[in-house]
Write a sequence for this structure.
């Protein structure tokens, strides 16, 4: 027993940890709670939000969500929903008497998400819909008498019959659209809540908002629910009584996220101003509620604004977006004059803001060393007050390894590149450590100052616990730095963006932090593309993990669900310019690869189909390069089951440790210490 205890103490010490910190592992980090959907009440006195907890037992591997409500004075905070079915998307009624939410609480294991309504003064939640498919989006009417919601069309009777008879083939690119319904919250003679379908036809709905007089609904529509069809997105209105639809004449380009002004005169929306590019350049525009000339408001720094709402006096529109490795909220004057930054802090992430008519703002805030919690502020004073302490138990006894923002000049001298560098736990100055280079997806993703102790296929604090530096750069092509920077990898994937990454690695070596002979790398999606590219360009990394990697641009464009994506980045189809596709495909240079490569893919990934990973794996096998590929059932592009998320983190750590011979080194050091103990 003493020998086992001594071995445990030694292993804890060698991993760069004290015993109190030993819980930073992929397994323990799954306990991190996911917080979402803050919603402030009309009077500003309450904030509802959702907490999701990993459920991992013999029959379950999912995240169970429940709704909580905190008072804005910080005095109360209670769980409002319970049970073994998730409850999501809480919304207070405008009159402040009710709260609605969605849940699949039916007896059937696969029960569809329905709308529930409960009184804030107490009582059971009542189901108010019987939709045949999941309700995806909903909104209360301002008079609190109706709820508009969007639901996917049900299959036809013949289709259901065919499926029961095992004639369940699927026609590629044949979609079920979603349409708009209005529910009246006064029961009819049969005891039912009357429902009216407001839209139908060959188009698909997403966002919606009610006019202030509760008579009209504005919505966003596109040709199909395909993610590739976002460029067809337009805005229209529909009468909540007659169902008469009116399309609004807009500028050329996609339009989405419509929101009425408080006086009902204008509709604000997000427009891509005719670019129709996956590199995005978006503005906030205003259009008269009945149609007319469009006014474009001031551009935001990153030109990718997310619309939050209107100021109480309708003189400005409020938006949020990424700002380098942080985020910010802005006020855009309706007269088109210069924007004003609202959020005072220059670090951390403001997320999911909800704005009521009084100007109260409920939001989530986090930093690299502080977990996400619910906050409240007002447009007149955006110094947010913390309302929750959701992760107190999770954080007990843990020390968070620090994260710094590094900046370096690109090799060609054109850009300053940022990167987040997380230090090993119990870092000792002057000592060199192994480095994990972690590349984000997108390519227009961004590594932001989110909490590094959150559960993820990349468990950053677990990496730090095991004695790694983790460098997460934002090379050219990333969001958060403006449109020019986001477009800087046009027809140049895997070249200058690759150099941006390598200069960052070199910087950590020059700083005396990273050991040049102990480098490993990983990335997911476009990060997986960069992983596949890196092993064809350099042998400096001792091991890599490619998650859902794009490896062959030609076959990717023929199998992914975003057929317009690569032509947007490369200026044409591969049959018109095969050379540029080949020159930027790792598979066409794979004979140069020698690095041990772990490949991870979800079997239900439509964004980057598993064939991309198989191409890489088979080629490396044939070349005699050490490789292993694991696929996970049911998983889309981003993994959703906690058992698999944990497994990925553990596999990545084990792959890196074994290829750096860290297991062997630790074992030898342990044996030496034990021998000294015997003497």
């Amino acid at each position: 027993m003493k020998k086992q205890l001594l071995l445990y103490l030694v292993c804890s010490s060698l991993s760069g940890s004290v015993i109190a910190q030993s819980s930073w592992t992929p397994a323990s980090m799954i306990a991190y709670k996911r917080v979402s959907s803050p919603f402030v009440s009309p009077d500003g006195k309450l904030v509802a939000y959702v907490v999701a907890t990993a459920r991992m037992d013999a029959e379950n591997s999912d995240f169970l969500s429940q709704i909580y409500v905190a008072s804005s004075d910080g005095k109360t905070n209670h769980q409002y929903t319970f049970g073994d079915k998730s409850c999501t998307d809480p919304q207070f009624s405008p009159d402040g008497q009710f709260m609605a939410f969605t849940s699949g609480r039916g007896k059937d294991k696969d029960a569809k998400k329905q709308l529930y309504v409960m009184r804030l003064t107490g009582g059971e939640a009542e189901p108010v819909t019987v939709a045949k498919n999941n309700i995806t989006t909903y909104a209360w009417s301002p008079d609190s008498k109706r709820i508009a919601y969007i639901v996917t069309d049900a299959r036809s009777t013949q289709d259901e019959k065919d499926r029961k008879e095992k004639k369940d083939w699927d026609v590629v690119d044949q979609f079920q659209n979603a349409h708009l319904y209005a529910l009246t919250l006064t029961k009819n003679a049969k005891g039912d809540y009357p429902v009216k379908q407001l839209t139908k036809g060959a188009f698909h709905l997403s966002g919606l908002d009610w006019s202030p007089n509760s008579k009209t609904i504005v919505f966003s529509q596109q040709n199909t629910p395909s993610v590739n069809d976002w460029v067809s997105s337009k805005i229209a209105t529909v009468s909540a009584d007659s169902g008469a639809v009116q399309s609004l004449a807009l500028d050329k380009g996609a339009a989405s996220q419509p929101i009425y002004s408080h006086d009902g005169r204008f509709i604000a929306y997000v427009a891509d101003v005719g670019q129709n590019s996956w590199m995005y350049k978006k503005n906030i525009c205003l259009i008269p509620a009945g149609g007319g000339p469009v006014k474009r408001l001031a551009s935001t720094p990153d030109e990718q604004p997310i619309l939050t709402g209107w100021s109480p006096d309708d003189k400005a529109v409020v938006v949020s977006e990424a700002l380098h490795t942080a985020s910010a909220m802005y006020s855009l004057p309706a007269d088109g004059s210069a924007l004003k930054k609202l959020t005072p802090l220059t670090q951390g992430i403001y997320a999911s803001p909800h704005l009521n008519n009084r100007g109260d703002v409920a939001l989530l805030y986090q930093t690299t060393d502080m977990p996400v919690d619910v906050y409240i502020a007002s447009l007149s004073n955006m110094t947010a007050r913390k309302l929750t302490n959701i992760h107190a138990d999770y954080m007990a006894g843990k020390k968070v390894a620090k994260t710094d923002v590094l900046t370096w000049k690109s090799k060609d001298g054109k850009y300053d590149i940022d990167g987040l560098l997380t230090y090993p736990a119990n870092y000792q100055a002057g000592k060199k450590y192994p480095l994990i280079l972690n590349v984000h997806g997108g390519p227009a993703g961004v590594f932001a100052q989110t909490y590094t102790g959150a559960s993820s296929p990349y468990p950053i604090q677990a990496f730090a616990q095991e004695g790694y530096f983790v460098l997460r750069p934002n090379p050219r092509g990333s969001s958060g730095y403006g449109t020019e920077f986001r477009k800087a990898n046009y027809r140049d994937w895997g070249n200058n963006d690759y150099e941006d990454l390598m200069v960052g690695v070199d910087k950590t070596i020059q700083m005396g932090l990273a050991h040049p002979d102990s480098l490993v790398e990983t990335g997911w999606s476009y990060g997986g593309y960069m992983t596949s590219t890196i092993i064809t360009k350099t042998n400096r990394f001792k091991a890599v993990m490619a998650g859902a990697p794009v490896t062959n641009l030609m076959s990717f464009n023929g199998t992914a669900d975003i057929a317009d994506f690569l032509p947007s980045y490369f200026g044409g189809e591969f049959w018109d310019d095969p050379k540029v596709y080949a020159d930027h495909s790792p598979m066409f240079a794979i004979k140069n690869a020698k690095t041990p490569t772990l490949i991870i893919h979800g079997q239900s990934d439509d964004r980057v189909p598993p064939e991309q990973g198989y191409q890489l794996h088979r080629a490396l096998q044939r070349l005699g390069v050490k490789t292993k590929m694991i696929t996970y059932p049911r998983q889309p592009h981003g993994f959703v089951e906690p058992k698999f998320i944990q497994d990925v983190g553990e596999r990545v750590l084990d792959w890196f440790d074994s290829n750096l011979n860290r297991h062997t080194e630790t074992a030898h050091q342990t044996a030496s210490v034990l021998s000294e103990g015997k003497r």
